Amino acid sequence: MLQIVEYPDKRLREKSQRVESFDTSLHKLLDAMYEVMIDSNGIGLAAIQVAYPLQVLILNIPNEDGEQPKENLLEIINPKIISKEGTSSYQEGCLSVPGFYEDVERFESLELEYQDRDGNISTLQADGLLSIALQHEMDHLNGILFIDKLSYSRRKKFEKEYKKLQRDKKSR
Questions:
Q1: For residue 169, what pLDDT is reported?
Q2: The domain 10-171 belongs to what CATH superfamily?
Q3: How far is 16 from 5, CA to CA, in rounded Å?
Q4: CA 23 and chain centroid, separation
């Protein structure tokens, strides 16, 4: 079973490598990532978050009923943003930074080119939560966390709150 790498682990700062081989080991990684994401109540997960520095991410945005049927799963490999528009602010959280949520500004909509698990090239138009989640996960592929996008004062406050949270966890 894969484990989620948590901040401040330095592996989260690694730049992910392009996937060249769309084989059984990639398929197993994607399947295992899905299980970890669902078990952790996440909507997205980048491979680096489970210690695999590959340009691989998965997303499963909940439907109107709050469910995440597997047929809605997006497996995105070697993503590249082709176009982007507007800005939007959304309160984000991260499985690698548990218990912390903050408003982050992102592009409102985007068009993405990517490969699927078999290496086929596709494009995707995204807006709303899907656009935000894609940008969040793609940042992971470049070693960027959502907390890096906070203002200096908010980042300092986060560091203080997070250290306290970690101390509280250890004392339990």
A1: 81
A2: Peptide deformylase (3.90.45.10)
A3: 14
A4: 22
Domain ranges of the chain: 10-171
Which run of H or E residues covers position 12?
Answer: none
Q: Measured between alpha carbons, how far is 159 from 54 in angstroms, rounded to an integer?
A: 28
Q: How far is 109 from 166, CA to CA, in rounded Å? A: 35
Give pLDDT, residue 14. Answer: 97
Q: Is 137 a catalytic residue?
A: yes
User: For every residue of 90-139, which 3-state class applies, written as one string?
Assistant: EEEEECCEEEEEEEEEEEEEEEEEEECCCCCEEEEEEEHHHHHHHHHHHH
Q: What pLDDT, on a 0 to 100 scale, did the predictor assign at position 165?
A: 84
In the prediction, which pLDDT does 85 show? 98
Residues in the chain where the model's pLDDT stays below 50 = none
Active-site residue, from 75, 92, 102, 137: 137
Give pLDDT tens digits for 110-157. Answer: 999 999 999 999 999 999 999 999 999 999 999 999 999 999 999 999
**Closest by alpha carbon to 43, among 122, 107, 135, 141?**
135
